[in-house]
Amino acid sequence: MTNEENTLTPSSVLSPKDFDSGFDVRWCPGCGDYAILANLKRVLPTLGIPKEKFVVVSGIGCSSRFPYYLDTYGMHTIHGRAPTIATGLKCSRPDLSVWVVTGDGDGLSIGGNHLMHAIRRNVDIKILLFNNQIYGLTKGQYSPTTKQSKRTKSSPTGSIDYPVNPISWALGAEATFIARTIFQYPDHMQQVLRRAAEHRGVSFVEIYQNCVIFNDGAFRYATDKEMRYDNIFELEHGNPMKFGRDQEKGIFLHGLTPKVINYKQAGFDETDLLHHDENAQESTLAFFLSRMRYPEFPEPIGIFRAIQKPTYNDLLDNQMEEAKQAVTKPLQEIINGEENWTVT
Amino acid sequence: MTNEENTLTPSSVLSPKDFDSGFDVRWCPGCGDYAILANLKRVLPTLGIPKEKFVVVSGIGCSSRFPYYLDTYGMHTIHGRAPTIATGLKCSRPDLSVWVVTGDGDGLSIGGNHLMHAIRRNVDIKILLFNNQIYGLTKGQYSPTTKQSKRTKSSPTGSIDYPVNPISWALGAEATFIARTIFQYPDHMQQVLRRAAEHRGVSFVEIYQNCVIFNDGAFRYATDKEMRYDNIFELEHGNPMKFGRDQEKGIFLHGLTPKVINYKQAGFDETDLLHHDENAQESTLAFFLSRMRYPEFPEPIGIFRAIQKPTYNDLLDNQMEEAKQAVTKPLQEIINGEENWTVT
Amino acid sequence: MEEVQKLKKEDKNRPRKSKQTVERVVIRLAGDSGDGMQLAGLKFTSASVMLGNDVSTFPDYPAEIRAPQGTLAGVSGFQIHFSSTEIYTPGDRLDTLVAMNPAALKVNIVDLKPNGILICDKDSFTPRTLAKAGYASNPLEDNSLHNYRLFSVNITKLNKETVSKIKGMTGKQINLTRNFFALGLISWLYDRPLHTTIKWIKSKFKNRPNIVEANTNTLKAGYYFGETNEFLAIQYSVPKATMEPGLYRYISGTQALALGLATAAHLAKKELFFGAYPITPASDILHELVRLRGYGIKTFQAEDEIAAIGSIIGAAFGGSIGVTGTSGPGLALMSEALGLAVITELPIVLINVQRAGPSTGMPTKPEQSDLLQVLFGRNGESPLPVLAPQSPGDCFDLSIEAVRMAIKYMTPVVLLSDAYLANNIDPWKIPNLDNKSPIEVFHPKKSVESGNDRFTPYTRNEHLSRPYVLPGTKGLEHRIGGLEKEKITGDVSYDPLNHEEMVNLREQKIAGIVKDLPLQEINGPTEGDVLVLSWGSTHGAAHTASENLRKEGLSVANTNLRFINPLPSNLGDILGSFTRILLPEMNKGQLHLIIQARYSVRAKSMTKVQGKPFHVDEIEKEIRKLIAGINHD
Amino acid sequence: MEEVQKLKKEDKNRPRKSKQTVERVVIRLAGDSGDGMQLAGLKFTSASVMLGNDVSTFPDYPAEIRAPQGTLAGVSGFQIHFSSTEIYTPGDRLDTLVAMNPAALKVNIVDLKPNGILICDKDSFTPRTLAKAGYASNPLEDNSLHNYRLFSVNITKLNKETVSKIKGMTGKQINLTRNFFALGLISWLYDRPLHTTIKWIKSKFKNRPNIVEANTNTLKAGYYFGETNEFLAIQYSVPKATMEPGLYRYISGTQALALGLATAAHLAKKELFFGAYPITPASDILHELVRLRGYGIKTFQAEDEIAAIGSIIGAAFGGSIGVTGTSGPGLALMSEALGLAVITELPIVLINVQRAGPSTGMPTKPEQSDLLQVLFGRNGESPLPVLAPQSPGDCFDLSIEAVRMAIKYMTPVVLLSDAYLANNIDPWKIPNLDNKSPIEVFHPKKSVESGNDRFTPYTRNEHLSRPYVLPGTKGLEHRIGGLEKEKITGDVSYDPLNHEEMVNLREQKIAGIVKDLPLQEINGPTEGDVLVLSWGSTHGAAHTASENLRKEGLSVANTNLRFINPLPSNLGDILGSFTRILLPEMNKGQLHLIIQARYSVRAKSMTKVQGKPFHVDEIEKEIRKLIAGINHD
Ligand SMILES: Cc1ncc(C[n+]2csc(CCOP(=O)(O)OP(=O)(O)O)c2C)c(N)n1
Ligand SMILES: Cc1ncc(C[n+]2csc(CCOP(=O)(O)OP(=O)(O)O)c2C)c(N)n1
Ligand code: SF4
Ligand code: SF4
Ligand SMILES: [Mg+2]
Ligand SMILES: [Mg+2]
Question: Which end of chain D is more exposed for a tag (fewer CB within 10 A), N or C?
Fold first, then answer.
């Protein structure tokens, strides 16, 4: 199923512009999705993968309009089902680089089960969840990530649903690569997207995205120039966890709970701080980090977890290969069956 | 919607026999489901709830035949959807005690999303997941909890799916009550079921169950008289975690990973061991415990987590009450609308 | 402001204007989706209604949330048909079009009648906006609009002059009042008073006096501009319609559904549990109902449509009125669970607001193409009643009947609305709740006589319905489920003859509903050349077309199906009394298939699958063709 | 053993037995599900087939995995129809019934012909087992079976005597060989050789010599018992049938589907991606295919049916042959995604193995009640081809045709099988792969001429199919999806006329498949009194009934539809050539609805909704009635 004659394009010649589909982009002016599109367009050409090998599969939602705006192969499918289609595609065509773009509604409300199973199987697909904590396309109902008490079209007196934490949830589903980034952090986002692309196995990336129309400012604490230093910190493999305008605050491990201390004032050393290990085989550290949420804690962004496990599609191909090796008879003989007889 | 005249039966007169529906039980001889049925029949009469207030809702699977065998109200619904029906029922009838019986296939394969959302919302329903790591009713295909490499009808050369860990998964879905028990531990099971029943909010109970026909012995490490001491330990709130034939081995916290040490030999004290706190507000401890799996670690059974949060149905009823309080006009006036005119 | 002031001063030498009375008028206000056309349309409607006109309106939003300003995709329109006679549709072609920018002109001009009035905001036809709309040259100047009576007005400028001096008005706010200038202008053109709108402005912005002032002033400025300018020579007026006496309001299909459901809860003295997952164009039902919680409506936003229908099945089992609302793709997802409701015989109501398919299709556009899905889109033999309201007001009535039917017959009921009905706004004679008969519900309790006899949840009453026993009822504990059940005990049964009997019983139960249905009525002669058979929202156009041609002396009648399963008992006779049957549908002939299968008459299928309702004249044309055909026979 | 020995010794004074030749025989072996009846039945079938009989069989498993031993729910049966003439069904009534316990007797006796042979294992009729089966007294002794030729044989005891002395046989193992004793006995009764079975035993248990010995000995003991005992006076033989020359095997519908799909992959030179979620009675397709992975079949067990169809849509987009298999409830769940495949025009094949509904219904029992769901169970206008194999062997042919059609027309195709076809085992003339025409697939590459022109994924070829471009093809990058698309570019389009045109194009494309279909053939005269119109698995009974009555001189023909959408072009003419049409279906008249809608003939619907296929005599009776009706006209 590979098209080898097509894989020879030197990827070095690709630029973001090559990924422009020429379609009119139909998001609201100011929508956070624009930034994500721009960043992905920067990352894709740098991956050394020919353009025609990319396929972007999405569900339904504002975010899911994404494929139309990228000049790759693409499929805008039905609500919540993109992971199933991506799974079938990747399993049948492991040579392709398959991306899923989904929203908090598409991916976690109607599509939570498929996302969970694609993650659990470690299918080698890249999942980008645009989390704006709202249903954009259907004009502003609360989603599974909407903060409790939020007034929306469908919760005029405040939502009573407890939100789900996408990172904790993905860890419960045994993701091998998990990251979080923010629509207004271009460099960070590009770095995360590149790492997601390079990971062999499922990549789950939560991207905070601002819906200017129905949930404006949901992530202001994380994007505002004044506030972000106190509310966000970047995870860096092997490095201590610290934040604050002067990187003066640090995360300490207190049993199984985090503790934030102005470690410089308190006379601690960087080495006393909790250090990040994205390769930790067990997911407990990543889970621990996922529980740190604004406003109680600063929120970690970056790569929570990146471990290696054989991918589902590789395992499947191995079995296919073994099965082919084990074949001793042509199909005709299989059709003939073990017991047959001749009528003359 | 309450039937107050019916709530007066003194529950003290109820016995397990009262819960016998008289139906022929149709599980295979030796099936682990029998034990679960027997234990639940013991627990229900002791809860102080009139029999007619119980409703058991199930999906499809061997396990999901459960409601037929209990003389309560019951509904054997469709594959994977029991949590949705239970949610609607509980929200419309908070006076009922609503139980969901599901299997690893019903609950975690097709039904994973609904289970996740019922859990996330903290609907006050009791979910019993009979985990036999196989599809029983459809005659032996692997399920989302089947161990990798297992040969089944649909994986004759070994399953390549990575299994999901139901407890980690339920934690990712923010369950307020999570427990695990084993079909061959009657006392333990009864205790767990009773606690699940008493919890106000969603209760998620994983029950290891042996399918004698298609997955016999999957839990032998946990039920065999010789092996169980080394492979299983009971969680007790406030108590140290230890196990072994002589309770000689203990669990230590090593950063964020567990360490098993023969603490008596090593000269430690019980107080040095990790102590269980089922009420820990954050779920990290419970998650940590859920990662301990046979054969690397002994597996914890009992109550991983039990915290209090307002239930979805209570929050909903509060909003209903507020809305009713806020009503100032009769329905007719609402129908009349704000702008109207008379034609004469 | 200066220009307006100037005009006012010149009051005495105002241009002579003539007044003309017309029977009915269709206008459309169109602009960018940020231009407030919907609001202006609604206010014009209110004024018309207050004047005593019969009115029918249709808003047309862009598919995108906020398409880029000035693009074709971002055009928003609001159409109003107002009349001194009874009307049933928002009208085919426009007498007047107001276009606030080039894109609005481009999208809407096709619908303007030749020689129709075209009012454009000249100021917004700039090189940039023209390019965005894909105009090579300015149509206001290149004579391409010579077929219309074009009035290029400096709306932006005039509005700005009017409001910019009001304290605290930002540039953005100033621009937002343009719609009221336009509204004032056409209010003059069609002789509508301003006071209802002014009253509304005052109450809406009661804490923002500068906004009140701005909107009021520009509304008046627009009106005076109409009165005083030179171009608009004729003022039209549409007299009062003679309508049935009573209290009226205007209402959309969605609002009517919501109020109907609240009324059903009231009539049944039961809580209504509405579980739904948002989907265009059904989400608004949820938005309406969540505000009616005080009236015993519990709303639940589910994680998907399967959960939505699951939740209402659970609620129905618990004794609430279980209702959900969705559209095509959601309905497809509900198929399996709908079958569970059929076999467990639990009363739920599913409202399907049809939109153009297949698949995601054109989500904001109406179509009637889910009929066969609703009838047959489930595994096994699983019949259920299907109702189709014919107008916004009928949504109220049929939602009540759907609930009544579900409970009486212990069955899921489907109500088929569509994107057109949902948004269409009509005047509605407000019903008096005291005149509505209660919805009777009987929940058995264990009787003393029954003693220790085992309760049999599948014994049936005279309507073939099984008892509606609530969990919590002592002594009547029982289990239901999706496996076939023994016909009395409800136990699981694989008995072949029992299965056949149950399949038949379920079928007969639904077929038996026919006894409760009103006989199908005909508009027009009871026999003749052509009968137009319509269903659901196609009613308006079919009715108007048949009435129009009857006025011309043609032998045409029409009848509209509100009950599609079961079909009314006299339908066969009616069909047999006409030489030709015309069956217009917004699909490829779905009801046609059913009619052909059930009756031996041959009907002519007329289809329109454009995401738009039928025009009256399209149906008239088909009728004429059929009559010509008969005459040639 | 003693008793057997004794019998053997008395060889010389063996009772005189007569031999009788019969044309065809129907037998059923019935016992507890642990009794090995399926195996015994299969071995009897093999022997019959080797003798040159035409054979048709039907296994009937209990719904439960392991129902409690000895209960009615636990009864397992295997029916074999073997004949010296061509046959098409496993037979209506039984000539011989073997009942291994009281429950098996109770469940199956209704099907035994009056005066039929009834062999019971006397030893298993104990007070306990009788009570379990609900017998108040022992039917073997209370004369209630006087209508049958009852042979009570000590099967348990005789078997035990035969095998208990073999080294290492446990009590449980001893009991497990009873089925071979019974098999031996009826092998004698119907003059079947034992060697095929003995060969099979040897290879099956090659590492367990004691089991080989036990099974072989008891098989022979049963045979000798038949030969030597006093009761069975007549040995029947069924001569060779004259069948088309060739290499034969026997095959179930499920096996044939799996092999057909493997063949399709081979003919298309493509990998086949089978994504499915287990569901009775379709799971076995997955079980068969996973063993054919070496032949280019990639199997994927999805988390549910929605994921299953999603995965094959993805695989089809990638260029694999995407196939799924499911049953009613799963099909319902696939509705929405099937619509996506329709609008994206991707080639997939969905096999629906129908079972009794609605909802969970009776999952192990056949029905034909998903036809309308398959045709219409999607939102919007979403036509797709529907094929229905008529026999196990036809499952092979039509699965290949389904793949061919899907690819040629870029469309999802549905293949409607049922629980009966899936398990029914028939002899099958093995096709030679070299004679099958290849499945042609064309994946465009960017041509030099096309230069920088934008690729248009919705341009159509002469079959109205769009190009099948694979991701990875340089320069042809494009996007597809569920929104309506512009007819050439595939861009999202809300244009009303474009939508209508696309709806029409999709419809015409499917309708156009008719040109590839074989003309519908008639068995019997091409005109006459009665035509039996059947579809799918009802073929066998309809065909046999019509043939039987034709032999009697009645004017009856039959025709079986294998292509239901589109319908063969000459069907209308065929229907018009008969005075009466009889349309038997295992549902409430679903094809009947379509036929009535599409053709002006009036057909008589004959329905059976019992989770069981039609009996030949039931159809014969209806035909006779129709003919009597004609004669009364
Ligand atoms: C089956 C189905 N149900 C419902 C919808 C309506 N729908 C479309 S998008 C959407 C939610 C989108 O939310 P999210 O995924 O967060 O995307 P966003 O618009 O916020 O980017 C819903 C409910 C649909 N298209 N299909
Ligand atoms: C929609 C649908 N798909 C598939 C099935 C078939 N099915 C019934 S039960 C089952 C799996 C049951 O597994 P589990 O929940 O683990 O229950 P167990 O039998 O092991 O107790 C499946 C796939 C079904 N009934 N409905
Ligand atoms: S509604 Fe929100 S998410 Fe959707 S395009 Fe607009 S701003 Fe973006
Ligand atoms: S198949 Fe397994 S799970 Fe099902 S009843 Fe039998 S033993 Fe129990
Ligand atoms: Mg969102
Ligand atoms: Mg299981």
Answer: C
